[in-house]
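Key result, reporting period 2: structure in, sequence out.
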């Protein structure tokens, strides 16, 4: 079972930063785990990202990173390079990001 109080804490921090501006009176139950992880990777600090990884596991967080952040390309390029290197132990982040973008493009164009 996921650590509900920690999830609510992460959600509250994201809500305080107005990360769910498109929702009307958003509640934690309305946000999927993947949305919460994506927003945390983009908007929160390293200790909060560490908490997200401890809650969901590195494999799940990396999948969200690959599927939701990397496809956004240049918009989050610097952030993606850092996350790949710092959290996911990628030795050559530029090459990794290019490979993942190519896979994403091939997947959606197939």
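The corresponding designed sequence is given below.
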């Amino acid at each position: 079972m996921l650590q509900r109080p920690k999830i609510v804490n992460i959600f509250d921090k994201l809500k305080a930063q107005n990360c769910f501006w498109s929702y009307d009176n958003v509640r934690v139950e309305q946000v999927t785990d993947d949305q919460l992880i994506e927003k945390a990777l983009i908007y929160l600090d390293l200790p909060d990202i560490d908490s997200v990884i401890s809650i969901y596991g590195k494999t799940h967080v990396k999948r969200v990173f690959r599927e939701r952040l990397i496809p956004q390309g240049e918009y989050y390029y610097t952030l993606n390079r850092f996350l790949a290197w710092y959290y996911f132990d990628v030795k050559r982040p530029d090459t990794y990001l290019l490979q993942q973008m190519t896979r994403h493009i091939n997947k959606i164009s197939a």
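Residues 58-110 form one domain. The chain has a mean pLDDT of 92. This case is discussed further under Risks and Mitigation.
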